[in-house]
Amino acid sequence: MPRVLLTGFEPFGDEADNPSWDAVRLLEGARIAGHRVATRCLAVEFGRSLRQLRAAIRETAPALVLCVGLAGGRAQLSLERIGINVDDARIPDNAGRQPIDVPVVEGGPDAYFSTLPLKAMLHALRAAGIPAEVSQTAGTYVCNHVLYGLMHALRRQRRVRGGFIHVPYSPAQATAHPGAASLPTATVAEGLRVALRAALTTTDDLRLAAGATH
Amino acid sequence: MPRVLLTGFEPFGDEADNPSWDAVRLLEGARIAGHRVATRCLAVEFGRSLRQLRAAIRETAPALVLCVGLAGGRAQLSLERIGINVDDARIPDNAGRQPIDVPVVEGGPDAYFSTLPLKAMLHALRAAGIPAEVSQTAGTYVCNHVLYGLMHALRRQRRVRGGFIHVPYSPAQATAHPGAASLPTATVAEGLRVALRAALTTTDDLRLAAGATH
Amino acid sequence: MPRVLLTGFEPFGDEADNPSWDAVRLLEGARIAGHRVATRCLAVEFGRSLRQLRAAIRETAPALVLCVGLAGGRAQLSLERIGINVDDARIPDNAGRQPIDVPVVEGGPDAYFSTLPLKAMLHALRAAGIPAEVSQTAGTYVCNHVLYGLMHALRRQRRVRGGFIHVPYSPAQATAHPGAASLPTATVAEGLRVALRAALTTTDDLRLAAGATH
Amino acid sequence: MPRVLLTGFEPFGDEADNPSWDAVRLLEGARIAGHRVATRCLAVEFGRSLRQLRAAIRETAPALVLCVGLAGGRAQLSLERIGINVDDARIPDNAGRQPIDVPVVEGGPDAYFSTLPLKAMLHALRAAGIPAEVSQTAGTYVCNHVLYGLMHALRRQRRVRGGFIHVPYSPAQATAHPGAASLPTATVAEGLRVALRAALTTTDDLRLAAGATH
């Protein structure tokens, strides 16, 4: 059966858990639209995360790669449109490194669009009652690093599509962040399943406005 | 068995559902800390909502009253500290009335504090992994109207405690509000159960900072 | 000439300046609608701030009292509707005290509405191109303490009106708070002048919706 | 004297003014760091705005191009890091067109980084007391369209640097948007002057973290 590679991240910063991995692990081995899901947990480290991702791509030879990360403070599943070729870290990564304005890939293009059908995924998520939005930036930390590096790795394999989804805090995490939004792990996992199914069954993306005026 | 009266609201504005009632109804008949829960759904109408609430208090003779309403846009369960003696409606209520700067109770005091042990409830919610906060304002619409009217109705029955909790959008509702926070009905209902248990088992409230600098 | 008492606050927390006093001091001695403005700078201390305010009221015998404080993070001039009888401090005051759930005035009523014509002030500010809103909570820190204490002090002098306006960070302060809103001191001072003129020339407040649904 | 080209935009959407042009026009003819400022007002139209911009570049042969646009709701001057090759309009432009997921330049690269020294500009703005931040997205509307098109036009003229700054509402505009941040035109114009001076006098950008974790 063809495979989907689905990755989450280990905890970072002051957090004891990372809801991206907590949700992703629930889908290990799941069958979605005729594909088997393989999961991996990536380090929150510049460089090492990408080496892990590339190794996982070699091991699983997936038809589609979806990486998932935490966006503490965002309220909805964020379908990332683009990864950009810069690391600019406000806080050190889990190995203590804090690159500032360094390219992800020396000499690489400035950015890569995700090749997932974002609008079809957005439509499917909303139809399933799961709040989602298209995001125009994945930031400049390890999540963007992984998205850019993923699309760079896939640049010559145009049949393998790739992209990134940011997820909110878990409710338990949000108890330490007054006023912060959250979604339960079960809701996020269901959202990932819905998004993957839409991605795997969509050839031509929908035409659905989901931009930002700024 | 002594009773708890728990109320939600019917839908209002552009919303087809009201997650306050969707969560409250799940607790109909539940037994919490030696009390039986009776539930009611209130109209989103100035005046009528309070007549319904007072009738429900007479019918159920509760030991504690907790009213629950929707605060679309808030991300956590909001334990309301105070109801104020003013109706100032930005949108008409479900009967088409839009009072502006009219007292809830002519000649009543300017405000009533909730008599629930908010800090103990906050502590219990967070310990249970459910994001919550104390709120210093319930607004000036029907929710505040009901909170003020509840505390006015209870002003001579100091053994019957009362208060109000605002809850976020449901995930399905949030799909129509890009960027808006939400919590599933099951999470909210579990939060109400935890909050009620804390309220029913706490005599002297905790001393726990949960104020706002502004 | 009858007088207006206008107060600001000294700096607190991590801030080196307090834009409330920076704006207020610009109006010292100003003549507005036939009144002379007297200004005072209050301590950011529970208790002492109110003793200073009561002394200033005795000294100036004002026709109207307007207290002004910083609400770092708010974007517009906030006309406060009500002060509530509780101190609940998230951070210590400038004397190191951090009261939690203590009344401002032991045995006082739960709250006092401002007696200023908020809607007329709001209308005048907007007409003058100065962004403003009515706020339903002044928090539970020293600003609310002063508003509640002011209205308590004036409770038997119904001819002397009183209220509170919260102002945003200054632009210079906002440089240390990424993403935070700000308004220049000159804009705030002009807003206070406009608000005072409206308050002094309005007998019956306007009927203008400015409430909150929650 | 070498020239700087500085552009603003005409009003769009429901707004009667555009603070980007209101601020930019104040700098017409100004001399900054040995350069003369030439200003232009661009149409809020996909396509036409870029034709106007390219014509202005031909006419003025500038050493540096800075385009400025409104980001209603943002609170600080936003130094845009990157323009991306997509138009995805949530609202029609001033000519009634609403492209969805169309490239700005057919066959162009996915994105172009600004070539301005953003961190030096950020540092200079903060030192001058003007709130500013680096932004990782200029959206997908006409502002991003112009930024992408500008960098595409300059791609073979590496000595001509270019970039984009988003500015907040004016205070007068914010009176129609309760809770929205704003900055006066004079503050914005002063910020543009400070930013241009920093850009014109900086060869190697500062190393200063200003990224986003997501």
From TrEMBL, chains A, B, C, D:
Enzyme class, broadest EC rank: hydrolase
Keyword annotations: Cytoplasm, Hydrolase, Protease, Thiol protease
InterPro entries for the chain: Peptidase_C15, Peptidase_C15-like, Peptidase_C15-like_sf, PGP-I_bact-type, PGPEP1_Cys_AS, PGPEP1_Glu_AS
The UniProt record lists the keyword Lipoprotein: no
UniProt record, GO biological process: proteolysis
Active site (catalytic residues): E80, C143, H166
Domain of life: Bacteria
Cellular component per GO, a single term: cytosol
Transmembrane segments: none
Gene Ontology MF term list: pyroglutamyl-peptidase activity
Entry similarity comment: Belongs to the peptidase C15 family.
Job description of the protein: Removes 5-oxoproline from various penultimate amino acid residues except L-proline.
PANTHER family (UniProt xref): PROTEASE FAMILY C15 PYROGLUTAMYL-PEPTIDASE I-RELATED, PYROGLUTAMYL-PEPTIDASE I
Protein name: Pyrrolidone-carboxylate peptidase
Originating species: Marilutibacter aestuarii
